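S.,

Sequence below, as promised.
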Amino acid sequence: MTTSPRALLLVALLPALPSIGVAQGYRVRLESRVQSVAYRGVTPDSIARSEVRVGANGVLFTPDGIAVSCIGEFCQFFRPGPIRRSGPLVTRLNLMGWDLGVAGLTVHANLRHATDLGSDDVWPAIRPSLQLIEGYAQLERGVWMLRAGRQTLTGRLGILGLDGGKAVVRVAALDLDGAVYGGWGLTRGASLPVTSRALNPLDDFQPRDRQIVAGAELGWRPRFGDIRAEYRREIDPASDFFVSERAAASATIRPFGRLTIFGGGEYDLAMGFAGSAEANVAWAGHRLSATIGVRQYRPFFDLWTIWGAFSPVPYHAYVGSLILRPRDDLTLSARGEVYSYDNTGAETGLVRIEDDGWRWNGRATWSPHRTWQVIAGLHAESGPGAASRGFDGRVTRRFSDNLTVSVEGGRVERPLEFRFDEATVNWLGADAEAQLDDRWQLTMQLARYREARDRPDAAAFDWNQLRLNARISVLLRSDSDRAWLPPRLGSPRQRRQ
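The prediction came back faster than expected:
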């Protein structure tokens, strides 16, 4: 979907639609966000071996002191890349209309327009500049609902965009609900067809036709929980072959009191193996809440991609979390996980490959007054190839119902196992959120980032920058969408009079 004068005119006219009789009831939210951000990477370079210098410890360097790796008569290295600046401006419009002359009929639209105000044009997802995220009509009558247009499917099998239709039926007497859907799928993670030119980096692996998506869902909601099952398949119309075929089930059970058991799993019918799954037990008390569980994560790839040929193995993890409220104004929380990958079966000779890791984080929230909140956190993780550790904090002051100001900062260290440099990032920033009236909202954020890369050569460049983030939002709605209060009755004496 590319930008056109007709599309831009439609966006401009959407807020005015109710005034011209299209809908008697409507809600329109228009939001714009602009940022300033900078990128800096590395630039590959090479040099003849005859020009290389040897350091005191035998390490090879370029004449200006950058470490090199030599094969034969040529040596390769990376220079600090140029700083590239970006200024993304993203505008979203969300529209809902009802009372259209047909009982139970509503229309929904969600559009996104993006452009880069910077000179380097490096912000992702800028093209196409105008995108229709969702746009559908929905008709609901008692026990059934029909929806047609561009919509988003959510569930255990993940999030997927669909240009098509969906039908839902609810049987309240049996606590059952079911749904079927079908249409043309969108790219996973984007509101674009897989054939879009914006996805051209796929090159020869890009499908020539959009996939056909079909699926069904079934849910049972008894008093003690919620049980659901899903099935979804995607077909390449050019070959009639499956792009994917998966099934999933999930359940939440509340056997008694404050105890909850929940979990679920997926099965990839096209590949013939189990996908991601988890099982957890949770206890939610007044002062103490705890969760323990196990999970398996296996990445999912469509059959048309090349990634499935690498036979990705899953990892298995044991997880636990704890929330403690020793006082009404203090909350302490912690979460930890240890995991290990299955054996890949790859031969590595004398090299030992790490296949396990761990991660944890802790956080404290203190509210000494209804207008103040202090949050502090720690985190650390170590896994195959890299690690991370750091802390962060945030202090928020609520001056009124319409104005909130916060100050935050933190530090992150990233030791890297297979590289020279270890990066450390420190940041400090402030933001303010103002509710100007019942329609207008304004948010401003300013943050300073300082990064240093610790490595023993001249390529230890920094990546310092100042980031600005501003957002403005306006809500337009009809009188039928307002929650009117009854007239003030006055004092008992006045009412008697």
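The first strand starts at residue 25 and ends at 48.

Coffee later?
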